[in-house]
Amino acid sequence: MNDMLKIADREFHSRLLVGTGKFASNAAMDAAMDASGAEIVTVALRRVDIENENDNMLAAIDRARYLLLPNTSGARDAAEAVRLARLARAASGIHWVKLEVTPDPYYLLPDGEETLKAAQTLVQDGFVVLPYMNADPILARKLQDVGCATVMPLASPIGSNQGLKMRASIEIIIEQATVPVVVDAGLGAPSHAAEAMEMGADAVLVNTAIATAENPVKMAIAFKLAVEAGRMSYQAGLAAQSTHASASSPLTGFLRNEQK
Amino acid sequence: MALLKINGIDKTYASGAMPATLADLLTQMNIDAATVVAEIDGAIVPRQAFADTRLADGMTLELVRFVPGG
């Protein structure tokens, strides 16, 4: 199979990106990541708890196998996002960043204006920027034009598991994009991921639906297969829809005599 | 008395008891330096410079690390 996902100067076999949040343990996270086949995994940056012992989650991630994609979650404006991205680069040596600017804590919807501003700064600063964004085709073009490596429209609010609520807008984004489109946030079931891939999305990012499933490993496998199926379906080209039935079996040679 | 503001919390030290360097501070706090990135007064301190970064009364420090996230 020579169907690689190319982001910036890197190529990936897997079109499923996974988030590392909300798993019951580091061991559960590691097992699900392994089962998902993902090559890109997201992480967040937070203050060290100076009063208590700190868990080192990075110890559970095989850095040779996974590209760590730090996010700027928690940023409420462009300045905070840029600061987080630079700290993440200093911490990891990685100049890739999942840019998120979400001032609204209830729906966690991204601020397009601030995201664009931060993207400009970070691209100029040498970052490979993957911006989380509203499914706004105009904004997608602007982010693309300032040099973002992907666009990552949300399917529905983060962690909501509602699926492709923004379908029609994402279709327009896919049609116009010259960079990979990664559908991020809200994909709650493998069928949602397959639907996004079938529409022509280049990849999907999933966290909550895997991490909080009853069996995260099995769910990771289900998403992996769904992403592959959806991709294959897109490449195969869906058969046309029609409003009326179109028989699959011959309409001749019935076991009855035609009445005159 | 000397004061460091670390992650929003004021830490006071008796005179002479404040750690001399950023590396010393992390050791004293039992934090693995390899997992941390630091900012002092708004400027990022590269990890290689932890041992040479001298602390002074009144500094504001941010110590951050990677955590699980989506």
Characteristic key phrases:
heterodimer, A: 260 residues, alpha/beta, TIM Barrel, 3-stranded parallel sheet, 35% helix, B: mainly beta, Ubiquitin-like (UB roll), 1 helix
Fourth-level CATH superfamily of chain B: Beta-grasp domain
The gross shape of chain B turns out to be: globular
Q: What is the N-to-C succession of helices and strands of chain B?
A: EEHEEE
Spans where pLDDT lies below 50 across 5 or more residues of chain B: none
Mean pLDDT of chain B: 91
CATH class of chain A: Alpha Beta
Main sheet of chain A? Answer: 5 strands, parallel
In total, the number of strands of chain B is 5
The CATH topology of chain A is TIM Barrel
CATH superfamily of chain A: Aldolase class I
The fraction of residues in strands of chain B falls at 35-45%
Major sheet description of chain B: 5 strands, mixed
Helix content of chain A: 25-40%
Structural class of chain A: alpha/beta
Q: Separation of termini of chain A?
A: 56 Å
Structural notes for this entry:
The complex is a heterodimer of chains A (260) and B (70). Chain A is of the alpha/beta class. Chain A contains eight helices and ten strands. Chain A has helices spanning 26-36, 78-92, 112-124, 137-145, 167-176, 190-198, 208-211, 216-236, and strands at residues 5-7, 10-12, 16-19, 40-47, 67-70, 96-99, 128-133, 152-153, 182-184, 203-206. The longest helix of chain A is centred in the C-terminal third of the chain and has 21 residues, at 216-236. Chain A is globular and about 90 Å long. With 70 residues, chain B is mainly β. Helices cover 10% and strands 37% of the residues of chain B. The mean pLDDT of chain B is 91. Chain B has one domain (2-64): Roll (Ubiquitin-like (UB roll)), CATH 3.10.20. The A-B interface holds A 19-23, 29, 42-48, 50-51, 53-58, 68, 70-71, 73, 86-88, 90-92, 158-159, 185, 205, 207-208 and B 6-9, 29-32, 35-37, 39, 44, 46-47, 62-70. Strand 4 (40-47) of chain A pairs antiparallel with strand 5 (60-68) of chain B.
